[in-house]
Amino acid sequence: MISLRKITLENRREVFKLEVADDQRRFVASNLSSVASCYVLATNGGSPLPFAIYDDEQIVGFVMIVYGITGYELPKIANNNYCILRLMIDKRYQNQGYGRKAMEKTLEFIRTFPVGHAQYCWIAYDSNNIVAKKLYESFGFRDNGEICENEPVTVLEL
């Protein structure tokens, strides 16, 4: 059973140790960097929601959701909408369906509107990351023509 859990003093080191495969490192920041970004965003008016992704009691990944402003170069779609800023599955658990299950659980959580109501969820992704693009499209995300920090923006109506 996949679940999203808060990052705590007890699980933070496990979160920081998670890594993607070597050929994927160019697509996603480290989890330590992402958690540090959460602090910066939170202290500057943002609403970051970082979670460890668990399969029962085993940590398998990390996701970082942001509502509204992100403090980065912003596409127009960012205003009052959710962004999945990071999603990663540890290299030991890839190709086992965890990415799909994590995305399902993440979108289920977003649709509870934990920080505020939104019409869309958006993701900026590296256009060379074909696996991620296919995953997003399988959930109904579609590129909207915007570019965020040199990455295409894909959008899902909630």
Write the layout of secondary structure elements.
Elements: E1 2-6, H1 12-17, H2 31-43, E2 47-55, E3 58-67, E4 82-89, H3 98-110, E5 120-124, H4 130-138, E6 142-148, E7 151-157
Parallel strand pairs: 4-5
Antiparallel strand pairs: 1-2, 2-3, 3-4, 5-7, 6-7
Description:
Helix content is 26%, strand content 32%. With 158 residues, the chain is α+β, with helices and mostly antiparallel strands. A seven-stranded mixed sheet has the order 1-2-3-4-5-7-6. The relative contact order is 0.17. The mean pLDDT is 89.
Summarize the entry for a quick read:
The chain is an alpha+beta fold. It is 26% helix and 32% strand.
Q: What is the helix tally?
A: 4
State the total count of DSSP E strands: 7
Low-confidence spans: none
Beta fraction: 25-35%
Oligomer: single chain
Percent range of helical residues: 25-40%
What composes the largest sheet? Answer: 7 strands, mixed
Strand order of the largest sheet: 1-2-3-4-5-7-6
Order of helices and strands: EHHEEEHEHEE
Based on secondary structure, the structural category is alpha+beta
| Euclidean distance between termini CA atoms | 24 Å
Mean model confidence by pLDDT: 89
Alpha carbon gyration radius:
14 Å
Overall 3D shape:
globular
